[in-house]
Amino acid sequence: MAKPSVVIAHDPSPDIRSLYSDVLSAHGDLVFLPDLSSDQRKDALRGADAMICYNPRLELDDEDARNLESIGFVQLLTAGVDHVPMQLFPATIPVSSNAGAFGESMAEHAVAMIMAAAKRLPFEHQEMRDGRFNQFVPTKGLRGSVCAILGFGGAGRATARLLRPMGVTIKAINRSGKTEEPVDFIGTSDDLEYVMRGADFVVITLSLIESTQGLIGERELGWLAEDAILVNVARGEIVDQDALYRHLVGNPRFFACLEAWWIEPVRHGEFRLDHPFLELPNVIAAPHNSASTAGSQVQSIRRGAENMRRWLMGKNPENLLGDAERTF
Amino acid sequence: MAKPSVVIAHDPSPDIRSLYSDVLSAHGDLVFLPDLSSDQRKDALRGADAMICYNPRLELDDEDARNLESIGFVQLLTAGVDHVPMQLFPATIPVSSNAGAFGESMAEHAVAMIMAAAKRLPFEHQEMRDGRFNQFVPTKGLRGSVCAILGFGGAGRATARLLRPMGVTIKAINRSGKTEEPVDFIGTSDDLEYVMRGADFVVITLSLIESTQGLIGERELGWLAEDAILVNVARGEIVDQDALYRHLVGNPRFFACLEAWWIEPVRHGEFRLDHPFLELPNVIAAPHNSASTAGSQVQSIRRGAENMRRWLMGKNPENLLGDAERTF
Q: Which residues contact A298 (CB under 8 A, 6 or more apart)?
């Protein structure tokens, strides 16, 4: 009996092709889409049983989508999938994200930004360049502080795991209001005000879906202490851009650490801001690179390939997307 | 019987005066030196059984020192004491530092700087301001990395305690080559080359004594990987300033996080550099403020006062200085 046909939609390096082969070739025949002529491509898609995509918006067009007649499963390699044009895939077949694949890297970046803001690293460096040596202006200690984590998937839980040993109290919210991770509080979006009031730090790791778009606006920012630190490693759209800019200008001791943006290259083809966030002294900006630690891409692809193997072996794949993610 | 007379040489705030009173008044009579006229001052010093100093260079002059006839113990409130003019105190009486008092705060600052450098926070922020969005340039992961810690007192051990839960391997050196702290390696200065070779990060928390002055020079920097990160939260003089500057210019991927400086306000009355470190893109500079977290001053004074109480109660005080610290 022929093995199922697994189409790889992106163009992997030789090392990654070997990785796919190691993980999958016992259970499926691999077809690398970018290697094919347009006739071969059409046949490959029509005969595909499963597919792995990195950035479907760039890898597949509407014509390709019409040929996905026999497909039974799609594995996406990114953790966030709000930028994926879901209409490319038949509505009835299962699609998995790679949620949590970059969780540890994202958590390290979130903690790096929290600590840089707590210790005012960029600000005091500039002060020294300007001739001021502020040795006795108090900075924030991590021990004894409180961190609210909004969204408690892979990245959120990994953030908690880094902060708790530092003596930071963790108050988290997720969809279920339940977690097996040790935390000081777990709730749902109903508890948003409770976890934000009194938090020294707020880390956003939520998925972007209809209910999280614009979740953090003027009212919610007003719940925070005037010297709180807000970290966004999820999606720009979860925070109201205008409200955040006004809040930063009006509260010079408030700090925003922004790694996720409203209009950014991978999702929108460019980086663009409505306000000059990069000029504010109370902003630490990062180019959505928290997932890009050395080795993290290979690890995440291995993780996606292993989930595909699970499907090929007749098991339930992990990280299946629900309606909220697929219809956003 | 009269209680022993404890002279406080610095000028504490009302809150700190209450703290001293709470901790010490059952065991000693407190005399605050800055409150006295010059005649009273002379009598107070002549009758002093013990003394607490913050920065003796500013608090006592040679005339005061000649009146310390009856003193039996001196408690210093700083962790590092290389800037203390030890000739102020009779050579035969015990002097304690406040070593470890700021260990946790210093460790947090050291880890904040390691992570900021590993994630290239200041560099990528500037890149974004310059219009470059380097989303896929790999940063360093903490998990799986190796940190050498030079000096394994309060700050060094606290640094290890923050880094180990992040998956960082700890290789430390101290004077004894022994520790009860869980580490992957502990050695002495004989092992300096071993711990520095292969380290992703090096954190200096050593005391400045004759044997550590200029310890890290051109040869030692040459042992490090070209993209290693060097953190100094101890004393500038432990690192050869010229050698470090040349190393930073010659190795643009190498990062130095400098919180301790060669010529700096508290110890020398001014901040001065022989080279423009603050202009280099691979330097993170901090104004020797790692100890200045909110509340840390109060905690450290409480710790010093409690050590004084130990002496007043006839117990052995902690952190007694040895010859190496007193003759440097």
A: A15, A16, A19
In angstroms, the Cα distances linking B89 to B38, B53, B324 are 20, 11, 16
Candidates B120, B121, B142, B262, partner chain A, best to mutate (most A CBs within 10 A): B121
DSSP A320: B
DSSP-based three-state secondary structure for B257:
strand
What order of strands is seen across the sheet that includes strand B29-32? Answer: B29-32, B5-8, B50-53, B73-76, B95-96
Instruction: Give Cβ neighbours of residue A199 (< 8 Å, ≥ 6 apart).
Output: A146, A147, A148, A171, A224, A225, A228
Residue B298, chain A, CB below 8 Å: the answer is: no
ipTM of the shown complex: 0.88
Its pTM stands at: 0.89
What are the CA-CA distances from residue A304 to residues A19, A98, A138, A287, A309 (Å)? 11, 6, 45, 24, 9
pLDDT in tens, A140-191: 999 999 999 999 999 999 999 999 999 999 999 999 999 999 999 999 999 9
* Residue whose entry in the numeric block shows the structure tokens 């005391």: B207
Supply the Cα-derived Rg of chain B in whole angstroms. 22
Nearest to A135 among B116, B128, B265 (CB): B265
Contact at 8 Å (CB) between A41 and A34? no
CB of A13 within 8 Å of a chain B CB? The answer is no
Number of residues assigned to chain A: 328
Residue A261 contacts residue A274 (beta carbons within 8 Å): no
